[in-house]
Amino acid sequence: MLTLSLLATNMKKTLKDLLTEVKSLIKEQGEDSVVSYWIYTKKDVMGIEIYDEEGNPTIHYPENLANEVIAKLQNYRTISDHISDCIDMEIGYQTEDNEEIAE
Asked: Residue 29 and residue 32: Cα distance in Å, rounded?
């Protein structure tokens, strides 16, 4: 998980910020460290199409709206809380199945 410094502020994050964080993680944990990640950018929002009754795309969201939507995603604690819950569940599954890990 990205460090709290990147997640905890209300500032807009950039790909440059992400690159800095990834470089720091590589230095700390090594470039072959296993990760799980999800990255959403303005293109994920701008690419959403609204269709008319005939199935034709009628609108693409503008870049300024897309930037605001992506910036506000970090305010949803339920996302990181849910990921933490999933990590706890996976640890439980792995330690149940492998007694060596649990000891």
From this structure: 8
- Per the structure, the count of domains in the chain is 2
Q: DSSP 3-state assignment of 58? A: strand
Specify whether the CB–CB gap between 33 and 98 falls below 8 A: no
* High-pLDDT (> 70) share of the chain, %: 84
The residue that leads in pLDDT, 37 or 23, is 23
Q: Report the 10 Å Cβ neighbour count for 42.
A: 18
Burial of 10 (0-12, 13-18, 19+ CB in 10 A): exposed
Residues 45 and 69 in one domain: yes
Q: For the residues 83-93, what does the mean pLDDT come to?
A: 91
Do residues 50 and 59 make contact, with C-beta atoms less than 8 angstroms apart?
yes
The C-alpha atoms of residue 65 and residue 82 are separated, in whole angstroms, by: 26
Place of tokens 């990760």: 35
- Do 72 and 32 share a domain, yes or no? no
